[in-house]
Write a structure and sequence with these properties.
With 332 residues, the protein is of the alpha+beta class. Among the domains are: 116 residues, Sandwich (Immunoglobulin-like); 89 residues, Immunoglobulin-like (Sandwich), CATH 2.60.40.420. The protein has nine helices and twelve strands. The strands form three sheets. Strands 3-2-1-5-8 form a five-stranded mixed β-sheet, with no helix packed on it. Strands 4-10-9-6-7 form a five-stranded mixed β-sheet, covered by helices on one side. The two termini are 53 Å apart. The longest helix is centred in the first third of the chain and has 37 residues.
Length: 332
């Protein structure tokens, strides 16, 4: 019994958590979870029925080992034909029901509303660029690997890919949607309650596909608006000498050719915008928690932790790297 209880606990552990499709926190995710449990229940009933039928046949065969050929029992033959025909029709009916329920459930979660907040999410190898768009272009801003949304309000995601096909999936909030180069796809994201939700690229996109995560912060409206206003602001010029030295390294070394920081001369467009990097929860699309020690390790040798990524190893002395870490961590 203890072993069965332990096995059940291990299996059920996958039904909850911040990246589980069976722990829904939106009406759209609840539809998908309901669809999953419906499919599971029907398939379980069919499996049980098949096992019972098989057991009955085997037991009957043991009791009557010398059955006469079917030609001598036409009624039995017709009965078997009727049973097989009925089972074939039942199978077709079950598949039809599965197809219809799946169609209507997924059709209900792929709507989008042009009147909502609009985000353009672009898949890269291997990180996410997130652009918050507004009718007033001065209110636009770009961030990376994190999405902040107001609780209870739908947010339209315009999905695109820069290089290969990716798939955007936040299991607790929504279904999957592909990001295809040269083609715009749309999906609506909504959270019914505050929380932190983890998403993942769900389409194999290259060597570091498994290390391409995204975090969704669902916040009350006032907290979201405060965050949004702060993101629009340019990075402040540091006052501490060490951070000033770090900014000088960033702007005048290879960093600025790929990354951008508003308010500075760094205007690279091929890597994440780092204007408010210090306020983000993770480094390298969820690879590390954003701490000075982890950032130092990442800058020292990014290819050790994410081989194949486009982040090069920039030769820096320990003192220069410490200054760069202090500057970046101060960009809150």
């Amino acid at each position: 019994m203890k072993a069965l209880a332990l096995l059940a606990a291990l299996l059920l552990a996958g039904c909850s958590g911040w990246q589980s499709a069976l722990d829904p926190h939106s009406s759209e995710a609840a539809q998908l979870a309901g669809l999953f449990w419906f499919f599971t229940a029907v398939c379980a009933l069919i499996w049980i029925a098949v096992v019972i039928a098989l057991a009955m046949v085997l037991l009957r065969r043991r009791r009557t080992p010398n059955d006469a050929p079917e030609e001598e029992h036409p009624m039995a033959a017709r009965r078997k034909t009727t049973i097989v025909t009925g089972l074939a029709l039942s199978t077709a009916l079950v598949l039809l029901i599965f197809g219809l329920t799946s169609f209507y459930a997924t059709r209900g979660i792929t709507w989008y509303d042009t009147q909502t907040i609009t985000l353009k999410v672009t898949g890269q190898q291997w990180w996410w660029q997130v652009e918050y768009q507004n009718q007033d272009a001065s209110q636009d801003f770009i961030t990376a690997n994190e999405i902040h949304i107001p609780v209870g309000k739908p947010v339209t995601l315009e999905l695109d890919a820069m290089d290969v096909i990716h798939s955007f999936w936040v299991p607790s909030l929504m279904g999957k949607k592909d990001l295809i180069p040269g083609r715009k796809n749309f999906i609506t994201l909504k959270a019914d309650e505050p929380g932190l939700y983890r998403g993942q690229c769900a389409e194999f996109c290259g060597l570091e596909h498994a290390k391409m995560a995204i975090l969704v912060f669902a916040e009350p409206q006032d907290k979201f608006e405060a965050w949004r206003r702060h993101q629009i602001e340019a990075a402040k010029t540091p006052g501490a000498p060490e951070r000033l030295h770090g900014m000088d390294i960033f702007v005048h070394r290879q960093c600025a050719s790929c990354h951008s920081i508003s308010g500075t001369d760094a205007g690279g467009q091929t890597a994440p915008d780092l204007t408010h990097f210090g306020g983000r929860a993770t480094i390298a699309a969820g690879l590390f928690h954003n701490t000075p020690d982890n950032l130092d390790r990442w800058l020292a040798n990014p290819q050790q932790f994410k081989p194949g990524s486009n982040m090069p190893q920039v030769p820096l002395s320990r003192e220069d790297r410490a200054a760069l870490v202090a500057y970046l961590e101060g960009l809150t």
